[in-house]
Specification:
The protein is an alpha/beta fold. Helix content is 31%, strand content 16%.
């Protein structure tokens, strides 16, 4: 049976939407037996709205539920790990502790001071590139953790294309946490590989061996089919995801990755009989291909267009499978952050002011300039992950040296034409946690929502809106996200359950609102002082799904 599920779902060619005829859910409707929480990596609100007229599959179905097109990853650090940490915790990064994909701990007991968000850096012989995956840095419980605390019979499964997506959505108490590697799906060190995962990985190996001739170009993608030059010898914008038999590397940078992840999720639901018992179960699904494709090709070429079309189809087939199995399930779909297309294509398409970041803003170059201006040499003055975000001063500096370095760094950055603002740690710490509509927050309020006094840097560097923080693009990394601007903060938030009356709320909401909203559906109490989000009413018109919750 599991093999049939895999065969039916992997790279489906059609995904019709099944008519929904159930009665409208009310506040008194029993809890769903299964919650399906889906995060589509780098699925911005802009991408969602751009292709909305063309949805025919799973995304079409979700637009027939409760649609919040202006969801916000409300914090400034719009990266994968912080974003995923908000979705099922009800909390912003300032509370989850996940302030970035990586941060610096200059006191760490190893040569590599970079800390990856989903690693245990205390494991001997590890580094931020060769790490042991762990949820230890997540400081708050996930929805699954809370569900299991309330009812130990609850089953929680998290499956994703990336380890950090699976870990941050699953939480430390999940029964199963699996993510894609070059060899197939893997889990935490020492976790045995059950027969289901062996079957899924066998299907993956077969898919790799077969190759992929590429995908047909949907009609809505034809206008995007033109090459864009990047550098001297690379073009993007016309790809179809052809893959030779046996080639592993390009598998994840294609719709094939999401198809395999959804096939695994469907097989797990079937094998574990999720949603078939008295309690509510949870499966979290991290779909990572849109992000890999956005980084590799940008968001506005045929590659991204084909990906969204395939995503819609694969989600449709996945939901059809759940329907055919008669499962009472509720879905939420959102994203960990948005994304920004490459400057070269924007320059061709009416945005000549788009530009790449000045290499002088990279931490090493900045440190050399500060050393020259202060006369302090012989050490790395400034540590950072790139030409934006958190910057850390060397800990061996004396108080006087540190003051000189901070003053010189601020002067250099604030005079730079590509810099919007630089905040000091003290400025951010003194700012109250933000409240009110996320679309109205100031930059320092966004920064506060990402701030952790132990993990955040000494300075926070934010670039101007149309500056891509990649100086020299290379294969696999031509565009990115991570800014405090709406192109990266805004994501869709879509809720669906069979029979619910559709409505659309265009005002801003936060991804931190997802946990209390889902908790209300299953009558799970969550103390309001433990989270940042609020419950969203999913009942159109009279009635309130949050009432008394």
């Amino acid at each position: 049976m599991i093999k049939k599920v895999l065969a039916a779902l992997i790279l489906t060619t059609s995904a019709p939407v099944i008519a929904q005829t159930a009665a409208q859910p009310t506040a008194a409707t029993p809890a769903p037996r299964l919650i399906v929480a889906i995060a589509v990596d780098q699925f911005s609100a802009d991408l969602f709205s751009e292709y909305r007229p063309y949805y025919t599959g799973g995304l079409k179905r979700l637009t027939q539920g409760a649609v919040f097109p202006r969801g916000y990853q409300s914090h400034a650090a719009t990266e994968t790990c912080p974003g995923h940490s908000t979705i099922l915790t009800g909390s912003r990064p300032s509370r989850t502790g996940i302030i970035a994909n990586s941060w610096f701990d200059l006191g760490a007991n190893r040569a590599d001071k970079v800390i990856y968000c989903a690693e245990d850096e205390n494991q001997p012989g590890t580094s931020s590139n060769n790490y042991v995956v762990s949820p230890i840095h997540l400081r708050v419980p996930t929805l699954g953790d809370r569900m299991k605390a309330a009812n130990p019979a609850t089953r929680v499964v998290s499956v994703a294309g990336k380890d950090r997506a699976a870990v941050m959505m699953g939480g430390p108490k999940a029964d199963h946490v699996w993510w894609m590697s070059a060899k197939g799906f893997v889990s935490y060190a020492g976790v045995p590989v059950p027969p289901l995962v062996q079957q899924v990985n066998a299907a993956y190996a077969q898919r790799i061996a077969q190759g992929n001739p590429g995908f047909e170009l949907p009609q809505q993608c034809v206008a995007k089919d033109f090459p864009v030059s990047i550098g001297k010898d690379k073009t993007v914008g016309t790809g179809r995801f052809e893959r030779a038999p046996g080639v592993v590397g390009s598998f994840r940078v294609s719709p094939e990755l999401d198809a395999m992840t959804l096939a695994f999720a469907a097989a797990a639901i079937k094998s574990m009989e999720l949603g078939r018992q008295a309690q509510t179960d949870l499966i979290a699904i991290g779909l990572s291909a849109t992000d890999y494709i956005g980084h590799s090709y940008g968001t506005e070429g045929t590659e991204s267009c084909i990906q969204i079309d395939r995503l819609d189809r694969e989600l449709g087939a996945f939901f059809d499978r759940l329907d055919s199995d008669g499962i009472d399930y509720a879905v939420v779909l959102t994203a960990d952050h948005g994304g920004h297309d490459l400057p070269e294509r924007h320059q061709l398409n009416a945005m000549p002011e788009e530009q790449r970041v000045d290499p002088a803003l990279a931490p090493k170059a900045l440190g050399r300039a500060v050393a020259a201006s202060t006369g302090i040499s012989g050490k790395t003055l400034i540590h950072g992950d790139g030409p934006s975000g958190d910057l850390y001063f060397d800990r061996s500096l004396t108080r006087a040296e540190r003051a000189k370095v901070e003053s010189a760094t601020l002067a250099l950055l604030r005079a730079h034409r590509q810099v919007e603002v630089v905040f000091t740690k003290a400025q951010i710490a003194a700012t109250p946690s933000p409240s009110g509509p996320p679309e109205s927050w100031s930059l320092i309020q966004e920064a506060r929502a990402s701030f952790d006094p132990e993990r955040s840097g000494d300075l926070l560097l934010l670039l101007k809106p149309r500056v891509m923080p990649i100086s020299n693009p290379f294969p696999g990394y031509v565009a990115t996200h991570g800014s405090p601007w709406d192109m990266d903060r805004r994501v869709p938030m879509l809720f669906w359950r069979k029979g619910m009356r559709s409505f659309e709320q265009p005002l801003g909401v936060e991804t931190a609102d997802i946990l209390p909203t889902l908790a209300a559906l299953i009558d799970l109490p969550v103390p309001k002082d433990e989270i940042d989000g609020r419950c969203l009413d999913l009942i159109a018109g009279e009635g309130d799904s949050c009432a008394g919750k």
